[in-house]
Amino acid sequence: MDDTTHKLNLKRELGLVGAVSLIGGTMIGSGIFMSPQTVLSTIGSPGASLVVWACCGLLVILASFCYAELGTVIKESGGEYIYILRTSGPVVAFMLIFSSVLFVRPAGVAGISLSFAQYAVAPFYPDCPPPVLLVKCVAAVAIVLLATVNCLNVRFSMSIQVFFMVVKVLALAVIIIGGLVMLIRGHTENFEDSFENTTLAINPIGIAFYQGLWSYDGWNNLNYVTEELKRPEVNLPRAVVIAISLVTGLYLLVNVSYLTVMTPRELMSSSAVAVTWGNKMLGSWGWIMSVAASLSAFGSLNGTFFSGGRVCFVAAREGHMPDILAMAHIHRLTPSPALIFTTIISLLVLIPGDFQSIVNYFSFTAWFFYGITLSGLVYLKIKKPELPRPYRVPIILPILVILVAIFLVLAPIIDNPQIEYLYVTLFILSGAIVYIPLIHYKLCPGLLTKLTMFLQLFLEVAPTDKNL
Questions:
Q1: What is the β-pairing status of strands 327-329 and 461-463?
Q2: 289 near 171, Cβ under 8 Å?
Q3: Core-most of 107, 196, 425, 431, by most CB within 10 Å?
Q4: Residues 247, 215: Cα–Cα separation, whole Å
């Protein structure tokens, strides 16, 4: 008998095509079909809404360049969590993982699944809004289905991601071509005086950016799975540039098409903008856009699951979550306990969930931690310039994105403070209080050890090594 212990590794099965599909396929989800009307109604004019979409794309491109350097300096999976842990220390990292695991990631999953469900059932309720209970049940089924797929096989989940990436790009291409045909025919009346009625107050600008940036969410997904990426020093920067440039261009052209086909009033009053566009342009075939939008959200949900489970997995590996969540299935080599845990929390968030409030609180929390993460990049550039950097950006870039992140966090509070943002802030800070007894002093009951052993046998999982 061989007494040596062999630990598992998550395999490097993600190539450039899969990486581009993971970023782009997660970004192009529900947002571009759900957020345009909210951006327009908040900012007040078609011209200003296009500026917001362009600025969101530029901001995400700049932030992703910074993340590409972080991912090639710190070659571990986990995204913001592992970067904050290595630069700002365990307390701040635990505050991130506490809010991320219990709110940010599940809120993202719940928000995308809700939009998927709304579009999936929309053709069956052409004249009235679908029942809320039905929408949430369909959303829950989608969450459970994709959790199962991601637990079973990494390659299959990435095949789904690539397939849905192609489907959603084709759907957006249909919208873009329809808009271009209308423009060529001279339908430019909606762009006359396009900046009239623009709202320039701080709060509306911040909320408009929140809604726009929700559509770009997923730009940092590849950093969560660095250890499963082939040649990350080459493929990480390449995938980021290809995917985000493609998505930004598509989003701008799609919004131009929306504004060409629909009046601003029609756009703002629509609950499902792609369906309204489809009904006007495709007539009786308008239901196709509802199907395309639901498939797009489904693909985005798959990508969010794929990366979200890895955050929980890495945090457990670093001792900030129960040990069982750092284990992988002994045959399938997937982090199934972390994925199951994420599924359960997401279903709980879905129960009281409302799409618009989920988006706003999600964006507030996410950009708070993006700012802290990029502060870590500035620290590494100043204090540890000797670290090998296959890819580097000028220091002014992370500083610029940090300033924007500060604005995005403060904007909704300064102009129109709401008590909900105080609750979210207190929730984030409460992570530091939880850290002291549970992590620093390790006041964990012996029951947790017995539960870990039971779950390890039941789920057929074992501890893993880092794949560096």
A1: antiparallel
A2: yes
A3: 107
A4: 10
Distances (CA, A) of 453 to 69, 340, 341, 461, 466: 39, 17, 16, 10, 22
Summarize pLDDT for 246-276 with one digit per residue, the tens: 899 999 999 999 989 888 888 888 767 887 8
Which structure tokens are listed for 5? 């212990």
Residue 355 pLDDT:
62
pLDDT 10s digits, 280-326: 888 777 788 888 888 888 888 888 777 777 788 888 888 888 888 88
Structure tokens at 63: 């932030």
| Predicted TM-score of the model (pTM) | 0.83
Contact in structure between 203 and 409 (CB atoms under 8 Å): no
